[in-house]
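queue> holo job accepted (L-tryptophanamide)
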Amino acid sequence: MVCMASDRPPVAHHRPQAGRSAPLPKFRVLSGIQPTAGSFHLGNYLGAVRQWVALQESHDAFYMVVDLHAITLPQNPADLRTNTRLAAAQLLAAGLDPERCTLFVQSHVPEHAQLAWVMNCLTGFGEASRMTQFKDKSAKQGADRASVGLFTYPVLQVADILLYQANEVPVGEDQRQHIELTRDLAERFNGRFGETFTIPKPYILRETAKIYDLQDPSIKMSKSASTPKGLINLLDEPKATAKKVKSAVTDTDTVIRFDAERKPGVSNLLTIYSTLTGEGIADLEQKYEGKGYGALKTDLAEIMVEFVTPFRERTQQYLDDPETLDSILAKGAEKARAVAAETLSQAYDRVGFLPAKH
Ligand code: ATP
Ligand code: LTN
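queue> job finished
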């Protein structure tokens, strides 16, 4: 495994201050997900969204559907609109509660694009060129056809995080480099213009940082890289999902043991099983001792079906009532904007922009 669990509690650069009698203000988390598919996949859920749900209980949580990021690759406008609502509906179905967190759409808060411009001007061309996700995605399209937006994608993500003075950013392992860039740019800005931004930390849980493709456990489960049989979409027919789990690639021996290097397929299934049920890996190894892969896969298929069936129903309920959904997003954007506007105005002032007179 490549990553470390986030150390807790986080040490904020700007620790929130409280009066003697007031309760300590909560740390802030922020994260985002792209509306670029018709369904979240299991990697999105286990690697990120599940943590978002948990963190809304303990943190001041901001979560957004990042449609500005989505258009760094070509999107059909009608699909983008549909997928944006769909992403919000899935986040609510997964357990986000608009009373406990701020849920919004990135393009509803114009400050993201405004701060991104400032941060673009602090980012080295070479520094941006080293972002591995840009290299991967641009290589897929043919480097010459990649947009400048794709190149500067990570800098927009930096602006997303810094606008909210987030202490922690719950994401999967593939996002670590972008959080590192955020830290570097925040330090650079603070060093050059005076203390302005909180330095955020990645919040990446070791166990679920990277969920692998069920057919090729050497690559991460991803909407773009995975084979259809290796990708579990949460909104797919539960029967199809069960079938994919049952035909997951394992290995030629039959021992159910967690060993990410030598037995990546089985280990991936154990991780998924353990996270969805709360049963420890060691307990699962014991439970399936001498039973073979068939039994493990059959049980996991059932667990998956039990998980996705109500998830699909709840998502559909939100989609059936777009007015309520849009009003949740409108309230979220209003709350988000209040925070973002304050940070942006400070940053503009520090950079030396002349205040606009109203
Ligand atoms: P892409 O096809 O562009 O790679 P994706 O499937 O990785 O997309 P994103 O919308 O980019 O999906 O990711 C949303 C969140 O899900 C991020 O925090 C990301 O780190 C996390 N995530 C995505 N795939 C996995 C995975 N296989 N394991 C763990 N976390 C993941
Ligand atoms: N690049 C992220 C999505 C994202 C994000 C953010 C995550 C955009 N802005 C801010 C955390 C914080 C991805 O998951 N692909």
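queue> Strands lie at 28-33, 60-65, 101-105, 168-170, 201-203.
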